[in-house]
Structure prediction request, 72 residues.
Amino acid sequence: MYTFKVQDMTCGGCAASIRKAVSNVTGVTTVTADPQTKDVVVEAHADVSRDTVVAAINAAGFSEITIVEANR
Prediction:
């Protein structure tokens, strides 16, 4: 599981964009994104790297990403 803070996620539309982008990564099983807390929590198979998830969030148009936790 990975937990990120995405500071430039400001609304429900932002959260939906992040959920959609990260859900499209092969091996991701669950994505939650909360614009109130700025938290994005991703559960994925062991072969999904943190960098792959960050790249998906970047591709959705977000760049202010901090890694909070990576449980592997």
Summary: The radius of gyration is 11 Å. The chain has a mean pLDDT of 94. The chain has two helices and four strands.
